[in-house]
Amino acid sequence: MQPPSSRPLHLGYNPIEYVNSHLYLGVWIDSNLSFRTEISFLKERTNLRLSTLRSLTDKSNGASYKVLRLFDIQAIRSVIDYCAPIPVGANPTLIQKLETTQNEALLIMTNSPRWTRLCNLRMECKIEAIQHRIKARAAGIIAKITHSATPLPPLTRVPASINLHPDLLKQSWTHCTVKAIRLFNLDTVIQQEPPTPPLSLEFIAHLTPPNFITYYTDGSVNPPKAGAAFICGTKTAAWRITDGASTLLTELVAIREALIDAKNTTVSPAIIIHTDSLSAIQVLRQPDRYDNINICSTIVNTAYQILARKTIIIHVGISGNERADNAAKQATNCPHSDIEVTLSH
């Protein structure tokens, strides 16, 4: 940043250097908020991965279209998705540089001639334009943050600007963000009251019938160690699982073991499982799975066997499950793995 005066700033006895741009959490912030440095940085990173994509298309033993598209989404577009709320206020001419990279990726994936219409390529590959993608991601992320129970202070200007006429807003990052939010009809979401905090375990226990069996599951990762646990009344079960397991995998192991334990229980008409992993529930609900297939299949099959004679209720977003969390953390200190699982890839 350019100094406001000739007097330098010091941290202790060390002078602080003034710079025109700074890399913060993987995003370049420049003094004018033009995001030119960030766009150039993204262009350089995506071009390197574009070369890898091109090398995968060898005519003799190259990858299939499905693999190429997956690489584009996971390795190239993810770089832009990470910082989507930042370049939403950038000049469209700068965004076009990123659009050029994606267009090149589409041509490579489909092995199409360069005179192919880009709109047809996007429809064929089901990949939206970068400009639209950045606005959609930014609008969704900003709406989620501003509508949370504890919104970040710098984003409080966005809800305040929602009801202003577009002509009254200066051309700024806030103006571009508000336009993106209006484009996807998320302005009504931001203006709603923030959601209530998660229900406590004490409140849930008050509503749960006494003859229901309740499990609390959790997983813990202390790289490279990993553990999983469940709590059911006075019973605590915990395991150390294969080193290198992801947080999602530990949560799935905890749910699986809770279901296996519940399968052998015949004294209750219903089973309630509390988990703090929304991603685990989302994975189990997917009809097609490409990862963690073995453990997900075991969970689903065990659940169907239980459903033949019991009711299963799975909750997510319950706060206060410290016992299961502590048990999973303690399991990571076990000298050997109790459960061997196939690591996700």
Report on the structure:
This protein is of the alpha/beta class. The chain folds into three domains: 18-127; 136-191, no CATH class; 201-331, Nucleotidyltransferase, domain 5 (2-Layer Sandwich). The protein is built from 13 helices and nine strands. It has helices at 36-55, 65-82, 92-110, 118-125, 130-146, 157-161, 173-183, 187-191, 201-207, 247-263, 278-285, 293-307, 322-331, and strands at residues 9-11, 14-16, 21-24, 27-30, 213-222, 225-232, 235-241, 270-275, 311-316. The strands form three sheets. A five-stranded mixed β-sheet has the order 7-6-5-8-9, with helices on both faces. A hairpin with a 2-residue loop joins strand 1 and strand 2. Helix 5 (130-146) crosses helix 7 (173-183). The longest helix is centred in the first third of the chain and has 20 residues, at 36-55.
Concise structural overview:
The chain has three domains: 18-127; 136-191, no CATH class; 201-331, Ribonuclease H-like superfamily/Ribonuclease H (Nucleotidyltransferase, domain 5, 2-Layer Sandwich). It is built from 13 helices and nine strands.
Any idea of the CATH topology of the largest domain? Nucleotidyltransferase, domain 5
Q: What is the beta-strand fraction?
A: 5-15%
The number of helical segments is 13
Overall pLDDT score: 79
Highest-level CATH class of the largest domain:
Alpha Beta
